[in-house]
Structures are given as structure tokens and as C-alpha cells.
Design a protein that fits this description.
The chain is built from five helices and nine strands. The protein is of the alpha+beta class. It has one domain (22-172): Glutaredoxin (3-Layer(aba) Sandwich). The strands form two sheets. A seven-stranded mixed beta sheet has the order 2-1-5-4-3-8-9.
């Protein structure tokens, strides 16, 4: 994939309430009739992982890495949603595709279908002329406030390890120096 630019006027601002959403999802893989909404995650940390397209090259490496570390997120009170502008039917087909064939089989969290592209637009990751999202990662706290975001070009995958570290740093409520690791003291 090549360099791309999101041109939407984003509504997702760190320190402010996260933009609401309601999207079709793979929560019920058989019927595909259970949406994901921001309110579903009230009281826990939420990681929203926007990615460009199902059945691509970098995306499955990211989504399966987050899935393989899913219990680590649950252990710190966090949940995950993967989001693209693909349909929920495409998501189901991709989840049913073995990993060695480019799929994301056995994914432990739902994929949401932002078919209207409104959520990608609200979060400032929509590449309007292509109808897909940049790679965006957003961490929302248990009260629904956006606490962290990182958005970058399409060619580089994100780190589950760094996302876990950031959530744990935010959970301390303290000042965490560069390279802070869980268990270390925070700054006074």
C-alpha cells in the first residue's frame, strides 16, 4: 500500500468523550446480528484498532497479534474491537480463513463493519478518496474518555505490547517517564 492521507475533520480528541458508535459486528458469527456500541464497553478500557481492509498483508499480522495477547488485555480490564470499512460478511469470511492462508482464524474479539464510514470519519482515519481507514489505534477509558491515539500510514503494523504498556501507564494515574514499564515507580 502507498502513503495516504485522511482528510476528515476528526471529532476524536484526547481528553474528550470518545465519539459514539453503533456498528454491525462479528460478535455473533452465525447470525451477524449483534452490533457493537461504545456503551457496551462502559466500565472497562477499550482498544479500537482501525485497519484498511480484510484479506490484505499487514492487517492479519496486527489483528492476530492482538488476538494472541487478548487475555493480557482482559487481565488489565481492557477489551478490543477491530474496525474496517469492509462488510460484516467479509469479516466473517476472513475470520473463517486459516491464518496460513492470510486469514485471522480464531480471532478472540469482534470485527466491526463501518460500512457508512462514519466512525472512521469521526475518529479522523478515513481516507475519503479510497473509502478505507488509515491504521488508527484509540484507547478509551472506562468512563468513555479518549485517552490515547496513534494514527499512521498503511505500511506499518502496530504493537500489542506497546498498547498494553500505555494502558497500564494510564491506569497508574501518575506521571510515567519514557520507557516506563509496569511495576516501575512513577515520577513524583
Amino acid at each position: 500500500m502507498t502513503a495516504a492521507t485522511a482528510v476528515a475533520a476528526e471529532k476524536a480528541m484526547v481528553g474528550q468523550p470518545a465519539p459514539d458508535f453503533d456498528m454491525a459486528s462479528t460478535k455473533n458469527m452465525e447470525k451477524l446480528n449483534e452490533n457493537v456500541k461504545l456503551s457496551d464497553y462502559s466500565g472497562k478500557w477499550l482498544v479500537m484498532v482501525f485497519y484498511p481492509l480484510d484479506f490484505t498483508f499487514v492487517c492479519p499480522t496486527e489483528l492476530t497479534t492482538f488476538s494472541d495477547r487478548y487475555q493480557d488485555f482482559v487481565d488489565i480490564g481492557a477489551d478490543i474491537i477491530g474496525i474496517s470499512t469492509d462488510s460484516v460478511f467479509s469479516h466473517r469470511a476472513w475470520i473463517n480463513t486459516p491464518r496460513d492462508k492470510g486469514g485471522v482464524a480464531d480471532l478472540k474479539y469482534p470485527l466491526a463493519a463501518d460500512a457508512t464510514k462514519k466512525v472512521a470519519s469521526d475518529y479522523g482515519v478515513l481516507i475519503e478518496n479510497r473509502g478505507i481507514a488509515l491504521r488508527g489505534l484509540f484507547v478509551i477509558d472506562p468512563e468513555g474518555v479518549l485517552r490515547y491515539k496513534v494514527v499512521h500510514d498503511l505500511n506499518v503494523g502496530r504493537s500489542a505490547e506497546e498498547t498494553l504498556r500505555v494502558i497500564q501507564a494510564l491506569q497508574t494515574g501518575g506521571l510515567c517517564q519514557a520507557e516506563w514499564k509496569p511495576g516501575q515507580k512513577t515520577l513524583n
